[in-house]
Amino acid sequence: MDSFLTGLRESVLSTRSMSYASNAESVTSHDDQRYPQHHLPPPSRHGSVPTLRAPRSRSRRSSLSDYSDDQDLEMSGAQGEGPHGLSQIQELPDSVADSLLFELPREVRDLIYTYCLSSGEGHPIDWPTAQNTAGLQPQLLRTCKIVHDEAAPVLYSSNTLSFLQSSDANMFARAMASPVYARCVTSIRLLIKSSDTRYWMPYLTSKNAERSLAADFPKLKNILIRFKSAKWQHNHPPETHISELPHSDLRWTEVIVGLRGVYIPAPSDFVTDEEFHEHIRRRPNDFLELGDELALRKHAMGLYKLAELRMAGALPGPNIRAICTFRVGSTQFGALVGPYRGVPSVAEKLSRRVIQRDNEPFVGFRKEDFEGRAEILTRQTDPEWVSSGLALFARTGHANLEGISVALEVYTLDSRKENMGV
Q1: Could you count the other beta carbons within 10 Å of the beta carbon of residue 66?
Q2: Are 318 and 222 a contacting pair, CB within 8 Å?
Q3: Dihedral sign of CA atoms 19, 21, 27, 33 in order
Q4: Which pLDDT score is estimated for 122?
Q5: How far apart are CA 90 and CA 97, in angstroms?
Q6: Least confident of 82-86, 294-298, 356-360, 377-381
Q7: Distance in angstroms (rounded) separating the CA atoms of residues 356 and 48
Q8: What is the pLDDT of residue 340?
Q9: Domain of life of the organism in this record (predicted)?
Q10: pLDDT tens digits for 153-191?
Q11: What proportion of the chain, given as a percentage, has pLDDT over 90?
Q12: Given pLDDT bands bounded at 50, 70 and 90, which one contains residue 235?
């Protein structure tokens, strides 16, 4: 029995020691060059780092066997200060030495943090907000500094932040959140009104280190733009207006082109001078139709390489989706989303095509892209446009427009749902 208890004690201590050491290793493994020293926060935002020493033996374990304090929790592999502000930790301090949480492996602790700090079903978190509508438990971060250092990156990296104004996004990254944790944000949603485009464009397209989307959130993997257009022509057939988008809405086009200029490199950037000259040496007749100017021929070669990367889904930078939304009347909404009625004529059969599907190259939007896609508009879809009564929306698939996924969305606030496909 004594040997069994001794083995059990050693197993528990080993699990706790290794799991906590793994945290320090994961935090310090990042490239320090990506986190300049002047961007690092102080070791503690509320004073100096507490003195770390060997924790006291727990009284409930004394029945297993006697062991000295200097044998408990010898930590290794935690060197220096990591990018998330986790200071040098060689062993658990007294304040958390008796916590069962730190007996769990780091992977299990991360699952707990994710459950407490992630919004359900990927719902975006609006900021600023009057109430916690995402079911988060951020008070977990206040329990102790060690939990804060482990869990704070989960809060920022596993949620989608949503902003109505460019100043809100900049203020959040620079004043509300630590710049270190702002670097953990991977998904963002921006709700842009057509009338506010002039305020958003400097923030979206600038590379200013103090005020720009790229500088405030440098680790973005997903950018969702919900552009609220005012260009819908209510006195024109909806299919005519749809077929002219996105080029008929210059402000939406401005947003798309601006984001592409920041996050998608120019075609010539995909080809080095060495690659280009080697290609021309082997195939001197390629791109001759462009003339003798090497810059144009290199640009054309870059276009081919860029197309290959798009087809392979390996385009660098974040995944950018831009949805242009319109408010329409209930009659037009019903005409768009309702099922196709009647027997189509030969001319109609010839004019119809396969609907625009997700991730396919953009070929233009048609009325058929909306049919049968009506859904109920919720706060998670758009927190500003949900009002009393029933709100419905329909959205096309996301087409690939030169590296950016574009889609159209129509919605109506009419509470009646007859002939609306719902």
Answers
A1: 8
A2: yes
A3: negative
A4: 56
A5: 13
A6: 82-86
A7: 58
A8: 45
A9: Eukaryota
A10: 999 999 999 999 999 999 999 888 888 888 899 999 999
A11: 23
A12: confident
What ranges make up the beta strands (E) of 4-81? Answer: none
Q: How far apart are CA 6 and CA 44, in angstroms?
A: 38
Phi/psi zone of residue 244: left (φ > 0), alpha (ψ -120 to 50 degrees), beta?
A: alpha
3-state secondary structure of 333: helix
Confidence at 313, pLDDT banded by 50, 70, 90? low
Task: Reply yes or no on whether the pLDDT at 251 is more than 90.
Answer: yes
Sign of the four-CA dihedral 362, 367, 368, 372: positive
Instruction: Decide if 377 contacts 361 (C-beta within 8 A).
Output: no
**Is residue 264 within 8 Å of 403, Cβ to Cβ?**
yes
Helix (H, G, I), strand (E, B) or coil at 342: coil
Tokens 């109920």 correspond to: 376
Q: What angle do CA 189, 191, 193 make, to 5 degrees?
A: 160
Using omega within 30 degrees of 0 as the cis cutoff, is the peptide bond preceding 124 cis?
no
Residue type, 163: F
Q: How far apart are the first and last CA of the chain?
A: 68
Residue with tokens 């099922």: 339
Choice between 204 and 58, residue whose per-residue pLDDT is larger: 204
> From CA 21, how far away is CA 360, in angstroms rounded?
46
Q: Which residues contact 354 (CB under 8 A, 6 or more apart)?
A: none
With CA atoms as reference, report the closest residue to 304 among 336, 268, 340, 333.
268
Single-letter residue type at 373? R
Instruction: Please name the residues in contact with 140: beta carbons below 8 A apart, sequence gap of 6 or more.
Output: 113, 116, 117, 147, 151
pLDDT value at residue 40: 38
What length does the chain have? 422
Determine the angle formed by the axes of helices 250-263 and 197-205, rounding to 10 degrees. Answer: 10
Strand partners for 394: 410
